[in-house]
């Protein structure tokens, strides 16, 4: 099974691709495509470029499942509006199943379980935690 864990942070979609081999070992397949960023969400051309980039990335990976970390919609820690636009563009990908997992669910899970795979960059931690959670 091959999964993609996604964290949306402002104008950037951070993704980590993981799978498991027959022995149950986690394999990080992320490669050089660690994130996709939109330049200007008010320019139709940039939105179209982002949509093509993210969907081409998904087509290249051919995941069995994609999951996104949910963000707060209101309140003091509400996510930026552009992040919800990016989320909608991601959801337009119809070739695999997609789900949402809250940060609270991940935090609770990793209080009792160790992260079984390492990540290259600090900003990839949450996406890695999500992808590993999907393969549990």
Describe this structure in words.
This protein is an alpha/beta fold and 136 residues long. It has a single domain (2-134), classed as Ribonuclease H-like superfamily/Ribonuclease H (Nucleotidyltransferase, domain 5, 2-Layer Sandwich), CATH 3.30.420. The chain has four helices and six strands, in the order ββββαβαβαα. Helix 3 packs across helix 4. The longest helix has 18 residues, at 44-61.
Just give the CATH class: Alpha Beta
Major sheet size, sense and barrel closure: 6 strands, mixed
Specify Rg, calculated over alpha carbons.
15 Å
Q: How many strands?
A: 6
Quick overview:
This protein is an alpha/beta fold. The chain is 36% helix and 24% strand.
List the keywords.
136 residues, alpha/beta, Nucleotidyltransferase, domain 5, six-stranded mixed β-sheet, 6 strands
Give the helix/strand layout.
Layout: E1 2-9, E2 12-20, E3 26-28, E4 35-37, H1 44-61, E5 65-69, H2 81-91, E6 97-101, H3 103-112, H4 125-134
Parallel strand pairs: 1-5, 5-6
Antiparallel strand pairs: 1-2, 2-3, 2-4
Helix pairs in contact: 3-4
